[in-house]
Fold each of these.
Amino acid sequence: MISTTIICALACLVLVDAERRQRETQRTVAKIVASCAFVATAILAVCQRGDADRAFELFQGCVVIGLVLGVVGDIALLYKRGFLVGLVAFLLGHLAYAVAVGYLVPPRLWLDHAGWLAAVPLVIGLGILAALWRTLDTLAVPVIAYVAVIVTMVIAATAATRAQLAPTTFAVGAALFFASDIAVARDKFVASTFANKLWGLPAYYAAQLLIAWSLVP
């Protein structure tokens, strides 16, 4: 797991450099390597021996599915016309993370366990929609659906962590994923600049790695 984590981190650095230099081949290879590395980290985590119960095993399975969908989204975003496909893939990935939490904490208890922290992603999500509303155009409905799902996912991850049924790394990873999506949104709907990728890409890969590490029994 340490080796695949290092590979992911190094590939992310190469990816950021590729974005700066605008080298498409380097960008494609680095992104695929980095993304496959966090899935490999998750698989190795699941293979660790431990005393995990059935609920945690189901949690692990759903999270791995979510990570694989992340790879699909990453590949889709390599193409200029792949934004909507990537959006759907990541939406399904966040949904998989939320379903995973449902095996640990019933959805009806998410708000109770998350407490006041549930308001943070909700307020940020509404703020993002308000700021981008005039630029969404035909993507308004899928973007609203995406924001709703990722906000729910972050609340669910927070609930699982505060209930001490999932590692803190899972909630931190969910929060970092949300932060990285802000960079993607700014790049797509506000201004496409290297600055968005400079912090958005490291935040994204750190998020997926933390989520992968949370699968250790």
Amino acid sequence: MKQIDKIAIIDADLIAKRKQRFPNLALMKLSGYQKSIGNEVVLKLDYGELSEFSHVFIGKVFTDSAVPEEVLTLSHVSYGGTGFFFDKAPNLPPEIEHSFPDYHLYDEFVKKRIAKGEKRINFKHFVGASIGFLTRGCFRKCGFCVNKKYDSVFQASPLLEFWDKDRDYLIFLDDNFLAFGKWRELLTEVKATNKRFMFNQALDIRLLTDEKAKELATAKYYGDYTFSFDNIEERTVIEQKFKLWREYCKKSTKLYLFCAYDREDKYDEAFWQRDVVDIFRRIEILMKYDCLGYVMRFEKYKESPCARLYTNIARWVNQPNFYKKVSYREFCHKSQVLMKTDKVCAAMESLQEYEKKYPELSFIFDTKYPESPFTYDTKHVELSDHTGSSILF
């Protein structure tokens, strides 16, 4: 009779107490595999008493989730994930990669958090979703992206490999689904489940066609449709795709707005000035097509003289109740009112600092649904306000 081994699985992002709303798929697959061969699996929420286990597996998604170095050097500890290796993370062994995920790995963790007063909805993906990759890979090779391992998109797993029919909806983690040649066949299979579904990674709106837009818009989609708009230089093609998308879909659509990343790796004053303006240029386009935004900051923003401004722009945009009702300037004024003292709040102070330094750019902070405070020439080299003044780059 095979000896039953006691296996510990550690989600380092949980221990780091991040506001984690998503389970670690690789760890769920590891747990599923270990249970399938008869072993006992425990989700461990600390790094103590690891000698009690035959083997310990540690995974993390985020690079800043710290793990004690002495733990990583233990002979019976294995670790992996983008949080450790970024885009060089080794693949899971095939027998684990294609194991059915253990969707109950986090059950006790979720129960305890809810018992302590957290809302069940915060853990909806832990308890309600089937999660997996239909495809892997992306050809874009964006410098800031973790998904640079592959040069093309290929099918990763059959749907039945991770679909739990008792769960409410499906979440796909694909890197660039719309770049896969047989996307239609896969999407047809997904629709046949009659389950709601979503792509957790932003879809590549630049690859949208009439057929893709129609098929997505008529699906039982879960939550907001999500695309990305990372570079203002692509505004022409992005606007074309926005127009196409709105021909088929009137539902809530969100665009990730990546910022604070200098493609020339200079990070000088001219870049920080231009980048803030470019955020608002993209926001204005989103508003034009009644789309939500979600600001995602590259870690370099912390080194910027505009660091607080980046933080508060994200606070404004990432909360639709503010973004759709008030301009950024109005958001700062509301933040100031909430202070109820003479002290200037961080949002207002960062706004005033930027306007004092670049008074000619102050009009960008009045961007507001549905009005547009600025227009563009067709070559995208000039940003003009309605007074006729312009800012050249």
